[in-house]
Amino acid sequence: MTFKAVIFDLDGTLYDKSRLGLYLVGNQFLQGRMALSGRERMLRKKLKGRFFGSEEAFHQAFFGALGGEKARKWYYNTYMPAMTSIMRKHYHLYPWVEETFKTLRNQGIKTAVFSDYSCTNERLEALGFDLSWTDFVFEAPAFGGLKPCKEAFEALCQAIGEQPSDCLMVGDRLDTDGAGAASVGMGFVLVKDDEKQAKEFMEFIRLNVKTG
User: Fold this and answer.
1) Residue-wise pLDDT tens for the chain (212 aa)?
2) Cα maximum dimension of the chain
3) CATH code for the domain in which residue 175 is found
4) Is 11 in the same domain as 51?
5) Domain that residue 159 falls in
6) What span, in angstroms and rounded, lies between the C-alpha atoms of 81 and 86?
7) Looking at the 3D structure of the chain, how many domains does it have?
8) In this structure, are 145 and 160 located in the same domain?
9) Which of 34, 88, 130, 170 matches a 20 to 30 Å C-alpha distance to 120?
């Protein structure tokens, strides 16, 4: 089977996110916001997969439960900039990322990065990702719900301009990336960071993702 578009998760898929949560907790502890940071992570788990109808409706539910307008300002002015700074200092892309995106582009395949978190462009650039490598960057809340929300995956494919069956999702989690892809009939590949698996993934791309 061949695919016309490949969508990549970000955290844990394009880089090893180990200890990211600990770095964030430490950062927020120093700023006196550790409890708020913990609530944010727990709230994401609670809202996972639910569809709210629109980006604003999702944000109203998310920030309303988190603490209102003060929490929204904390999230965008403190929390996400802290995450971006930590990623720039401590993390880097997996070795296969640049080659894979360039291979897909040379074959005429559309690519996208699809994240549950905000500030995705900034976080990609912090990792050393050149935004010119990909055609699209999407954030799940813009589609009304966090992964594995079926409606968000449907909207994702619509935004890319391809049928779900012509798209391949690449991610590190079966319960979010995999489940969301399965809900709309999209292909899915689970990736982890080891040399053997990375080679197998590149071979899969060469064999299955090509122009017809």
Assistant:
1) 678 999 999 999 999 998 888 888 777 655 656 678 888 989 999 999 999 999 999 999 999 999 999 999 999 999 999 999 999 999 999 888 998 899 899 889 999 999 999 999 999 999 999 999 999 999 999 999 999 999 999 999 999 999 999 999 999 999 999 999 999 999 998 887 665 666 677 677 767 666 44
2) 55
3) 3.40.50.1000
4) no
5) 5-17+92-208
6) 9
7) 2
8) yes
9) 34
